[in-house]
Amino acid sequence: MDIANVNPVALTALAIGLIGLVCGAALALAARFLAVHEDPRIGQVADILPGANCGGCAYAGCADYAKAIVLNDAAINLCAPGGQEVLDKLCAFLGKTAEAAEKKTAIVLCGGDSGKAPRRFAYNGVADCAAAQAVHGGDKRCGYGCLGYGSCARICPAGAIEIANGLAKVHKNLCIGCGACVKACPRTLIQMIPVSRTIHVLCRSRDKGPVVKKACSVGCIGCTRCAKIADDGQIAMDGPLAVVDYAKPFDNEEAVEKCPTHCIVRA
Amino acid sequence: MKTITAPYRIEGGVHPAYRKELARERAILAMPPPGLVRISMAQHLGAPAKPLVKKGDTVLRGQRIGEPGGFVSAAAHASVSGTVQAVGPAPTASGALAMAVDIESDGNDTSLEPGPRHDNWAELDAKTLIGLVADAGIVGMGGAGFPTHVKLSPPPDKTIDTLIVNGAECEPFLTADDRLMREQADGIWTGISILRHILGARSVRVAIEDNKPEALKAMERAMAGAEGDVTLIVLPASYPQGAEKQQIYGITGRETPSGGLPMDVGCLVENVGTCLAVRDAIVNGRPLTERVTTVTGDPVAEPGNILNRIGTLYSDLIAFCGGLRSPATKIVSGGPMMGFAQGSLESATAKTTSGLLALAPDQAPVYESLPCIACGRCVRACPMTLLPCELSQALEAEDYELADAFHVMDCIECGCCAFVCPARRPLVQHMRGGKARIALKRREAMQNNKEKG
User: Fold this and answer.
1) Which of B344, B366, B437 sits opposite A122 (nearest CB)?
2) In this structure, is residue B124 part of a structural domain?
């Protein structure tokens, strides 16, 4: 048979068909002999996890955490967004028991919005807190307060931080507790606290009283009244600043009422 | 000695309005010691100095109040006599907090007995002279503030054959170096000769921009009898002609490698003010306690070149120049291109404060920055031949690896890109932030490597 006489369409179809057959066979063999056997539980654990990929567990994402749980026996109560529900499912699936860590939420420890904490100068640059901080130490008169340029809000995977009137505010109901915002704040104003705590000192200024008063109308002036009310160290003085010890439950309305500058709030 | 124009042309650069006429004809005026000086312990690059005095101590002018905090560091001296009022953190011109010593003047201005005069400096060896320079707390007075004694002690594998003396003063508005050269050319030349002796440098190049004809003439006269390979270089006026790496290229044609220092190409660049300080330290035995600062700008009532004590508060300095006759929207420490905008006048002059500039509302408009339109003007303007447009977009997207690959660390923050940008993008601010972030990451990586062993 002379190859030149064969119908070119049929020849092409034949050639492609043959190539397909050979490749298919190669793939079938590869799938059989080169297969990677992954523990099927990894995928199943990953399905249980919420898939937020927030990194709050300190692993690179949900899939990485699932791998660590199955292979390296990592603690199973690290998923903050998942909470009790995910933990229960994980316990049932893995046959383990674990104490749920209390759900945490972020809080911005500053109450000085534009009306309460004046600015020293007009900042006209990159809308980023670290950049603003680098220009003569930030435009806010208070050297410790929230600059309000939203670095925390931009990094939040859940959209839980709102910048209102020049002040960042965390919406507790939306916060998944991953802690990404804590690192984003150049003034370290954001803390992760147990969700059940309701009384906060919204100030981080380490200046003395008269300086604070000039910089902000809702700053802690270090009068120590709250520390006397919370006499078990729930609120303690750290130099000129009252600091809540969130490890100790505390719910005494008196501290809120007696604070002369109203920097202690219930939220 | 001969006079030539710069043989090489720098890349990029811009031609801002120089506005030097405001202060160039004002002779250097000595300001009487102020009631209070605030002497920062971080007036130089490197480790801050450690305060040697405490509250209540009495000090004399010229007394050492801060000792170097490491090798790359510099001593600090009291610039007035009086009582130490406070030792604590205070904002420097850049706004960062650093330890500072507040001295309340007693009004007598008593000086410490000056150190021995060394008129015979030509007979002393380099090591002794470098020691005297370090004792006097001398740092680069052009603006960066690199400790001079460190520059003068290069590692043994580097040879410095060319000493470049920087009298370019390419920043608009500033005239302090111009006046210094016009009025104290002989002193500057003595300082240059001392530095030349210390380094054993074969060639000396004194570089001055052609918009300072009087300074050129004065230096030419002072250098007339100089022997050996000494050349006065006339630079074409353009910004940033006075930046170290650009100047080396313009004069010698040598390109400083990325991440390298001038000594890698056999050069050392010193500002004219530094040369004068070296002369004062060695010949007169006096530490660095005063400098000339140009106080200028349209709102300033009487602009001038003020010889002020280091640590003079900006508010006092402006008051000495008659205050502001019209409102200023921006006050800048340094020149308009590279200076630091001030949030308040609480900062004080440092060894590096070459100018204090007040800008009127129409000179510092509030603007909105827009997305990059990819016109490439910044690329043409960049004297380091970087791509500011690409860098700023990478940094805006927080892609530090890409920015590092595009050599953001070679940015000299001269401001040419932001000056020409039609979209008014805050390019230099992006670079500064990015450089700080990358430097931090590198330090962390180094720390991690050390811990791992």
Assistant:
1) B366
2) no
